[in-house]
Structures are given as structure tokens and as C-alpha cells.
Task: structure prediction
Amino acid sequence: MSIIYAIVDFVLHIDTHLTEIIAAYGTATYVILFGIVFAETGLVVTPFLPGDSLLFAVGALSAIGAMNIWLGIGVLFAAAVIGDAANYWIGHFFGQKIIDSPKFPLVKKEHIDKAQVFYAKHGGKAIVLSRFVPIVRTFAPFVAGVGRMKYRQFLSYNVIGGVAWVLLFTLAGYFFGNVPSVKENFTLVIFAIILISVIPIIIESIKARRPK
Result:
């Protein structure tokens, strides 16, 4: 329970924790950011790590000079694209074994099913669209690998989605993260970002529960 609380606290107070990380580690913060985003997008066992909120916080802190916005964008983009690529190949070579193995309790079949429904509905565009949907973002490239989607096609969607996702949230944080009303209610803003991000999952879940 303490681990869950720590993760929730880190996500909801991402600005405070990221400021502490910058103070403690300096430029090594970019390596830490790379690791977080790579794990969130590239490892099916860590879909709970911050994504949208982290990007927004990076933009907000860059606006006040605590970070370099372009270096941040470059690092986050590289982590997002490399993470998705790694996730694809994990799914390609080991996907079904991971799904069937009890050793990976965090890889829940319902998460895979949601990603598959999302992928079936939107086709290749799902790789782009999934960037903006937590949990689905983590499992979509994995499902693409399991389904043997051609890697050249996957890569193009991966890059487009990575660019759109990183630029949208970091620049949103850069331009709006330090507006007084946003800065004073940063936790509420992060909560709103998370809530808006999961709306597609809620809608799809409601549709799935309706009798056909």
C-alpha cells in the first residue's frame, strides 16, 4: 500500500518532486526523465508511471529556467520512441509467453483486451492515438508486436505519435504551467489531465458493458 501511495503522491505532486530531483541531481535529471518515460512506454509491467503529467511539469519548470525546454523535449521524445520500439519487439518475441505467465501479474489480460479493442477500432492510427491514453499507451505497442504489425509501418506511427505527445504536453506546460491560477492549483490541474486522459477508456468500458 505504501508503494501505491508513493506513486500516487509522486504523480499528483509531480512539480514538487521534480523540483527536488533537479536540486539533487542537476543535469542527471534528464537521464532520470529518460528512464521514467522509457519504462512507462516501453515496459508492460510499469503502466502506472507518470506520462502526461510528467511532460507538463517539465514544460512548466522549463518556463522558469529550471530546465532547458529543447533538451527536455529531445530527451523525452527519444525515450518515448525508443520505449515504444522496445515494447514492440518484446511483444513480437515474448508477447504471448508474458500474457500467459503468472510471473507478470501487472500484465492483466483486461489491459491487453482494451488495447486490442482500441487497436482493432483505429488500426495503425491506434499507435498515435494511444499516446494520449494512459495504460493503453503502454500496451498498444506491445499488442502491435504480438500481432506482428510490420515494423516499418509501426515505426512511422511511433515517431508521429511521439512528436505529437511530447510537444503537446511539454509546450502546454511551458506556456500555461506558470499561469497564477494553474500554478496555485497545480495538483488539481494534474488530476484534471489524468481524468481527461482516461475518458476514452471509460467510454470504451461503458460501450463494452452494453448488451449487443
